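Tutorial handout. Part one gives the primary structure; part two gives the three-dimensional structure as tokens.
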Amino acid sequence: MKIPLKVSPEAEKYLKEVGKPNVSLSVKGGGCAGFTYEWGTTDKEPTVANLWLDPMAEMFVFGCTVDYVRELGGSFLTVVNPNA
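Part two.
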């Protein structure tokens, strides 16, 4: 299976540190604002780098990159979508 999204080295390192349960990524419809990425945890088998991708979300994250951002106010996982 070809993975539809990439994981940056920073995000991969973070996901390995988190360990079990795995991080999950799904997409929720959002009306006028478009789609919203939803992060969570799961015991399901990871798709890539301790990240489980909801099969229904694959077409919405195709070509995207998951990145881990560190800022003064905190750190977080984000989806970088070149099509947005």
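Part three, for discussion. The chain has a mean pLDDT of 87. The first strand starts at residue 6 and ends at 7.
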